[in-house]
Amino acid sequence: MKKKLSFSILFLSLHFFSHFPQSITARGGDTMSSTNSSGFAATIYGGSRRNLLRDDEHLKKLDKLAHGYMTNADLEKAMKVLNRRCSSISRIYTIGKSVLGVPLWVMEFSDNPGEEEAEPAFKFVGNVHGDEPVGREVLLLLANWLCDNYKKDPLATLIIDKVHLHILPSMNPDGYSLRTRGNANGFDLNRDFPDKFFPINDEMDARQPETKAIMSWLKERQFTASASLHGGALVANYPWDGTEDKKRHYNACPDDQTFRYMASLYSRSHSNMSLSKEFKGGITNGALWYPIYGGMQDWNYIHGGCFELTLEITDNKWPPAKELSTIWEYNKMGMLNLVASLAKTGVHGKVLSSDYGRPLSASISIKGINSTIKASETLADYHRLLVPGEVYEVIATMHGYKNKSTKILLGEEAMSLDFILDPTIPHQGSSFKSSCYYPSDGDGMGGYPLLEIVPGSQLQR
């Protein structure tokens, strides 16, 4: 009898609290005492088989709230119309389809959309959870603003001229249509990625099509940074999201200082996020807030060298449509400043071989920080985010070539730093020589040092 009574109380408690959007459930749908932070089997950490209680009254409420929000068909049409209106600085493409076959549409903004350039790339991902639709609306408002303000507003112009911005308004269109957190199969997509701390869906075939699409996207394109938009809290969340002991505590990743800088940049640019009483400065380490496993944020950083934030942009998971314009205004400068920071700060450059100037997809690391990024395979460009005002030793390594390192003092503006690597077995012929680095000219990126071909015999090292 006692066990039955306890179970009944637990069931009623869960049923009662499911009616209220809580900040603790925004990012992951779990309370701090959830299966994801308990001692349950690792296969549960991903939440891939978890089905939330279906509440018909709650669904009716969401149906009412959906009035004023775009349907999936409306969203696709709006993106195509916008692309036609700004065809010189945008393009649209798909990265895959949802369980129910809805295309996952992406809009790219650049002065040369679709072309590979030696520029950093940023991506926004909205609607990861179907019942958090604010991101899809806000991201379309962002796209329209960029379209309307290119060559008029300096920030819009900087972003489009110096960054390749990719916007995926809805990662989970099926969940949105069904008014559910998970996708059409009932999977929480923010628990479906490979995890640093515990094995989650290690087989690619076991993952959901939306997850596969994101993973393939990062294999095809090199993103410098990223942000996913959620609802249910007001905070900028950064890695790590999990812990090895499955307990709630601060768990810093190697680039903790840079992530804190990025999160603070967004929070301070937001109308009131930094004033949070719950989160100091409006930012939080994910594991300190509450651990999750199989999340997209940590996977981006580990497997893609992509610095991703999880942005909770509204306390209400599904606010009335009449509030969308205000939410956009509150978040606009945070979104713009975060993307623009890729061009305004950090270290950027190319890695070439001293024999004939071949592009090298070298590894770029910072002494004392246990993480690396890769220069691109085609253009050999790299873009390393770092906190301004510090001294760093930047190291370029490539199999078959001698390592090279340079100490820099990173100022408030972006710095250009090219590397010319010598093969371990020298080749006869021409060599490349370049100045090591110089600060940008103030436009956010600067130019790369001009390379001069000189006879190999005349090159002094």
From TrEMBL:
Signal peptide coordinates: 1-26
Keywords, alphabetical: Carboxypeptidase, Glycoprotein, Hydrolase, Metal-binding, Protease, Signal, Zinc
GO biological process: peptide metabolic process; protein processing
Species: Heracleum sosnowskyi
GO cellular component term of the entry, any: extracellular space
Protein family according to the UniProt entry: Belongs to the peptidase M14 family.
Gene Ontology molecular function terms on file: metallocarboxypeptidase activity; zinc ion binding
Annotated active site: E312 (proton donor/acceptor)
Cofactor needs: Zn(2+)
Full protein name: Carboxypeptidase D
Peptidase M14 domain location: 68-342
